[in-house]
Amino acid sequence: MADDPPPPSPLWRAGSTAIMAFTGTLTRAFMHGLNWQDAYGLDEFLKLLDERADIDGRQRGLITVSNHISVVDDPLIWGVLPLRYHFNPSNHRWSLGSYDIVFKNKAMSTFFVLGQVLPTHRFHKDRHGGPFQPTLREAVRLLSRPPFSPKSSALPVDRSWKPSDISDPFSSPNDYFTYTTNGMDTFPAPSAYATRQYSWIHIFPEGRVHQHPHKAMRYFKWGVARLILEPDVCPDIVPMWIDGNNEIMHENRAGPRWLPRVGKRCGVWFGENVGGVSEGNLFHELRERWRRLAEDDRRRKKAGEELVVGVLSEELKYGPEAVKLREECTMQVRGAVLRVRRERGLPDEDPKEGLVETWRAEGGKSEGQMDDGSLVKDT
Predict the structure, then answer these.
(1) Long-range contacts made by residues 122-125, C-beta under 8 angstroms, separation at least 24?
(2) What is the pLDDT of residues 63-85, one digit of tens each?
């Protein structure tokens, strides 16, 4: 393994702090000044964040996972956090953002990368998407302890205005700790830095906004299972339920559509930690089965062939046992979110809602009004 690289440059870190602080302050002012935002279980979640404040003392990553009901869920849900948490990016969330929506050009890429958003391709829109894309490798590594190898995509950064690829311009060499999402672009590789070890990632496993008349969720995608099964230590996992943001940016809203609505009551419910060393950990047995599967795959590797964190063999991608493990893990995560939904006071949903086959009930369309009455939107 190579030596730990230095942290990102001071100017890059200052830019990230500025973006995170600005967004967090604006969000908190909007949610508590022009709307009402209630939080349930927040004290325990803040206690968990405080325990993670010392980067060197972290023992594991953190995953928060929730339903997805509005294009502005992130950052609005983090309006519940006191302001001081928004001024510390090293103890704030990383999230996944759609490549074709929020990484359209260099200005947008810079804003969202500094805002700790990872560029994610949608499989139904381009061939670079899916659960095994490079961004998911970065996410797995953010939940682990570096250093990792290989560290660089070795791609030059296009300095023109239009392309979305960027790197830390204040570091030298500024294109070394990078990765590519599609073989043509270049982005900073946050997992390369020891200061990002055991980070916090928030994920919306539905993969898109889903506004259902009965507050049902879509099926969860397999990417969330990779974030739980593959890190070197089981992350803390906090399921969440969010409500009310759909009224701020409803998919059937009248014009001006870009303008968020005000005067709405919203809520964020934090469930109990179901990962880490908690007594309620649902995933120890699944991770043990994954460990044995990965060990068997390691023994089949050629002599001298290195095992790279976040990079999977064909067997670990598509083998029947690997697929079965991801399916089971994904359903466990969805069940954890459903328990928080139940604590919110909502009735149990139809178990069939969690199956991949539910897309057929939506009429086969990717966005808009579906046949089951729900509204779906890519984010």
Answers:
(1) 122/98, 122/207, 122/378, 124/366, 125/100, 125/378
(2) 999 999 999 999 999 999 999 99
pLDDT band at 1 (very low <50, low <70, confident <90, very high): very low
The DSSP annotation for 129-142 comes to -STTSHHHHHHHHH
137 backbone dihedrals φ, ψ, rounded to 5°: -60, -45
Strand-strand pairing, 375-377 and 209-211:
antiparallel
| Residue 190 DSSP code | G
State which H helix or E strand residue 201 sits in.
strand 200-203
Dihedral sign computed on CA atoms, order 151, 153, 156, 162? negative
Residue 297's Cβ-count burial label (10 Å; 0-12, 13-18, 19+) is middle
Q: How far apart are CA 40 and CA 240, in angstroms?
A: 10
| Residue 187, H or E segment | strand 187-188
